[in-house]
Every structure is written in structure tokens, then in C-alpha cells.
Specification:
about 170 residues; alpha+beta; Peptide Deformylase; five-stranded antiparallel sheet; two-stranded antiparallel sheet; 3 helices; globular; binds ligand GNR; binds nickel (II) ion
């Protein structure tokens, strides 16, 4: 197991759609374990392989970060089959540091995926789980939450991130 480096905006690898997983081998099982460890360490409630520079369709989610209450979930090739309703909720992303914004997404979704043992699952999700799954599936498609906010808010973030990089460059 290892804690992996999380790519940050504007890394171009975050924009690349990830490949479907055909065979769940040791490499995928190791990656899933590393994603969970990296997510708990960050800490975050979800993490997609895209964020650690592995362009394959696996994401992990756990809404409970407390060690005793953890409920790790691994999703291989997750797809949204159906989405219902819309709600605005504040989001953040480990790949978009120091910025949060309200994002409009479905309130309830049906997701199909495979578990790490290869068995198919279909789940109905709502609330924070629905939110996290939509966010992670977006990562697998090369989409960040800042792609789903108003152009003005995105502009504000981009300018702020550019300035932060400038400061880093001149102080390091
Ligand atoms: O830790 C995270 N919190 C979060 C809060 C609201 C909506 C989405 C998220 S996912 C984020 C971790 C992350 O960046 N996953 O890709
Ligand atoms: Ni994210």
C-alpha cells in the first residue's frame, strides 16, 4: 500500500477520459487499496484513479472518515443509468485546492458498476453519496467541478490559481 500524489489543476492528465477496465487483476486491486489509503490520508470522501495519474475507470468513496466507522466502497467502471431531480450543494475537490463552490447535480441517481471481486452491482444513491459518485464519475470522464460552475466563478478561480502558482514560483 502507498499514499499516492494527487494531481492538481491545471494538470492536463485531469482532463483525459479514463479507460474501461476489462480485467480486474492485482494491479487494479493494488490501485484500489492505494486510492483508499490516499483518500483517508488527504482526507476526502472520494477519489478517482484519474486524480493519481492512472487513467483507468476505478473510484473509491467513503463518507465516514473516522477510523472505527469506515465503510470503504470501490467502484469499477461506474456508470450513471438514471438521474432524478436537481440540487445545488457546496463542493470541493482534492485536485482543486483552496476553492469551493455550489454545483448543481442530480439529487438521486442509479449507478451500475463492478465490485473489486468482479460482481456487478446496481445502487440507488441520494444525498452525499449521490454527490460524491457524480463527482468521481466526472473525474473518470475528465471533468472537474469547476467545469460545472458559472463562467464568472470559474474565471475567479482560474485567476486565483494562476496567482498562487506565480507566488510559488517566485518564493521557491
Ligand atoms: O473530499 C471531497 N469532498 C467532496 C465534497 C462535496 C462534493 C464532492 C466531494 S469529493 C472530494 C474529494 C475529491 O476531490 N474527490 O474527487
Ligand atoms: Ni475531486
Amino acid at each position: 500500500m502507498a499514499i499516492l500524489e494527487i494531481l492538481k489543476y491545471p494538470d492536463s492528465r485531469l482532463k483525459k477520459p479514463a479507460k474501461e477496465i476489462e480485467k480486474i487483476d492485482d494491479g487494479i486491486r493494488d490501485l484500489a487499496a492505494d486510492l483508499l489509503e490516499t483518500m483517508y490520508c488527504a482526507p476526502g470522501i472520494g477519489l478517482a484513479a484519474t486524480q493519481v495519474g492512472q487513467p483507468v475507470r476505478v473510484a473509491v468513496v467513503d463518507l465516514f472518515s473516522q477510523e472505527e466507522k469506515r465503510k470503504p466502497m470501490v467502484f469499477i467502471n461506474p456508470e450513471i443509468l438514471e438521474g432524478e431531480g436537481e440540487e445545488l450543494l457546496e463542493e470541493g475537490c482534492l485536485s482543486v485546492p483552496d476553492f469551493t463552490c455550489e454545483v448543481k447535480r442530480h439529487c438521486r441517481i442509479t449507478v451500475r458498476a463492478r465490485k473489486l471481486d468482479g460482481s456487478p452491482i446496481k445502487i440507488q444513491a441520494e444525498g452525499l453519496l449521490a454527490r460524491a459518485l457524480q463527482h468521481e464519475i466526472d473525474h473518470l470522464n475528465g471533468i472537474l467541478f469547476i467545469d460545472r460552475i458559472s463562467p464568472l466563478k470559474r474565471h475567479i478561480y482560474r485567476r486565483k490559481a494562476r496567482k498562487a502558482r506565480e507566488v510559488q514560483r517566485t518564493t521557491s
